[in-house]
Design brief:
This protein is of the alpha+beta class. The chain is built from 15 helices and 17 strands. The strands form three sheets. Strands 1, 2, 3, 4, 5, 6, 7, 8, 9 and 10 form a ten-stranded mixed beta sheet that branches. Strands 11-12-13-14 form a four-stranded antiparallel beta sheet, with no helix packed on it. A three-stranded antiparallel beta sheet has the order 15-16-17, sandwiched between helices. Helix 12 packs antiparallel against helix 15. The protein is flat, with a radius of gyration of 27 Å. It starts with 18 loop residues before the first strand and ends with a helix.
């Protein structure tokens, strides 16, 4: 976790007059951050969950309480803006308040008052957050002094917004289509619900488009003139997010902020622009490029699945950092034989308060210690156990609970949306698709099996067991609720409930953690692998017959129902 000697950046790569962003100057920058109640740093999962909850509440109010679909969907989109895109709140809050005021006469006063209070309070919190950006920028410029330099690869094509732009257009089109087809829904309540979804999708699409424009605009502005520069330390965490530290924080004890970065490969873009040659030589080159690209992708996936933070590296930060800023990072490559690595921000700067930074490092240390303990326990259990010809793992009670939850969710969704006596054809089609999805997933959850022998792993699936040689296995990890096995060119996953807090309090080990640790030990040490060859019955049977039975049962239910 601690690094006494960061990977050095060549002196020639450091711009003249580039100052160190020391812990003292960084402390002044951190002091300018707003309080936590301004929604400075909200997890994406929490933001998505809160937005979904607001959408469900708004749809319910629209169908039962008479709330306008535009206001109901706008409130959900507004919640997303407050948590993830505060720049848009200045336009969203007045519009939402106006909608509530216009419809106030047809709503209970408590509903109008509660909605107005939430909008005004969140608007004030966002105003404080945005105002603090100026103080952060001022402290960053003071730390940089007169040190400025042109960003590396300023001539490179601007990539910011390339993903969000088409995504926003697709979602916007879906919103328009949903609105156009709203009259096809059976009941008035269904039609109002479809209009809520139409306005919500339209708002999401516009949000993505505006986010793409903002990111691209800020990235272009960073290239136009010499930018402030600061010497810092950087490190990639276990999930691949870049953490930025003060230049004298050699032990990486307190990250200042995090940012998603992407590298620029000028040669690949030039190849795309000049890809007009023909002939066998070019075909061979294209094949080699494809193979090299696949190897690079595998290397990146290995780094992400490694679940271990990268080394601390010296870096130069181009651009004054503040909440939501765009930056460029020129850092020492992890491979000492490679030139410095230039990376552009693929997302905004997300500051960390001093306490949040300390907690982040403490969680990483706890996770690393837990991983080491699991690996140690798994290795000891394999070493102490008598050599086995074959090892097998299969679905347990947690997987059965996961299957039951999936079935319950499908039954509830079907019951809630398809309770009419005579279902229209499109609803029957949607119900059939939902049942087919469940028929394909439930057998895997109930009856998955992994068999290890001396040649590799046999992993069950709908079409039968698949063989994965030991040398092709890339990683076996448990991430959140999911156990994921990745090998060369493909992967397999299964999910089950877990409660990390309860496991830590009781000293319990999730079955997926134990399985991943044991398989990882076998992958890394051939001496720990099974010694025999598995038989056909041991490898498991195809799961498609059970899936067919479940699909037929569901089809029979729909025939009787419809």
């Amino acid at each position: 976790m601690s690094y006494d000697e960061p990977l050095r950046l060549p002196a020639a790569a450091i711009p003249d007059d580039c100052r160190d962003w020391t812990a003292g100057r960084a402390a002044n920058w951190s002091a300018a951050l707003p309080s936590r109640w301004t929604f400075l740093r909200v997890r994406r999962s929490i933001a998505g969950a809160v937005t979904t909850l607001a959408l469900c509440a708004g749809a319910w109010a629209a169908m039962l309480g008479g709330l306008w679909p535009f206001v109901a969907a706008g409130f959900a989109v507004y919640v997303l803006w407050v948590l993830a895109r505060p720049e848009l709140v200045w336009a969203g809050a007045p519009a939402l308040l106006l909608g509530l005021a216009v419809q106030a006469s047809s709503l209970p006063w408590a509903v109008t008052a509660a909605g107005a209070f939430v909008v005004v309070a969140s608007w004030a919190a966002v105003a404080v957050r945005l105002r603090a950006r100026g103080a952060q920028l001022e402290q960053a410029l003071e730390a940089a002094g007169d040190g400025t330099a042109q960003v590396p690869d300023a001539h490179a094509p601007v990539r910011r917004g390339r993903f969000l732009l088409p995504l926003g257009l697709v979602v916007l089109v879906l919103g328009v289509l949903t609105g156009v087809t709203a009259h096809l829904w059976g009941t008035v309540d269904d039609q109002r619900g479809s209009w809520v979804m139409a306005f919500y999708l339209t708002g999401l699409g516009l949000t993505a488009l505006v986010s793409a424009w903002l990111g691209r605009h800020r990235a272009v502005a960073l290239r136009r003139a010499p930018a402030p520069v600061l010497r810092v330390l950087v490190r990639d965490d276990a999930q691949g997010t870049t953490e930025v530290y003060a230049a004298d924080d050699l032990a990486a004890l307190r990250p200042l902020f995090t940012v998603e970065l992407t590298s620029y490969d000028g040669e690949s873009d030039e190849d795309e622009d000049e890809h007009e040659h023909e002939g066998e030589d070019e075909a061979d080159t294209a094949g080699a490029d494809t193979e090299a690209g696949a190897e690079e992708l595998e290397r990146l996936l290995d780094a992400v699945d490694d679940d271990v933070p990268g080394p601390v590296r010296e870096a130069v930060l181009f651009g004054a950092p503040f909440d939501g800023a765009e930056v460029v990072v020129l850092s020492a490559d992890e491979d000492p034989d490679q030139p410095p690595l230039t990376e552009w921000s693929a997302g905004p700067v997300r500051p960390l308060s001093p306490s949040a930074g300390v907690r982040r490092i403490a969680r990483e240390k706890a996770r690393e210690e837990q991983n080491r303990q699991l690996e140690r326990q798994a290795r000891e259990s394999v070493v102490d156990r008598a050599p086995a010809p074959v090892r097998r793992w299969r679905a347990g009670w947690l997987d059965w609970v996961a299957a039951a939850l999936l079935v319950q969710w499908g039954v509830w969704l079907t019951w809630a949306g398809f309770t009419e006596a005579e279902l229209p054809p499109w609803k029957l089609g949607l119900a059939a698709a939902l049942g087919l999805y469940g028929a394909a997933r439930v057998p895997v959850k109930l009856a998955w099996r992994i068999t290890a022998d001396r040649s590799g792993l046999w992993v069950t699936g709908l079409r039968g067991p698949r063989h994965v040689p030991w040398d092709d296995i890339r990683s076996v990890r448990r991430r959140s609720f999911e156990l994921k096995l990745r090998w060369r060119g493909d992967d397999w996953s299964v999910a089950a409930p877990r409660w990390a807090w309860f496991e830590r309090r009781r000293g319990l080990v999730h079955p997926y953690d134990a399985l991943a640790a044991e398989l990882s030990a076998m992958r890394n040490d051939p001496a720990l692998r099974p010694t025999g060859e598995s038989t056909t019955p041991e490898r498991g049977r195809p799961l498609w017959p059970l899936a067919v039975v479940l699909a037929l049962v569901w089809a029979a239910v729909l025939v009787v129902w419809g």
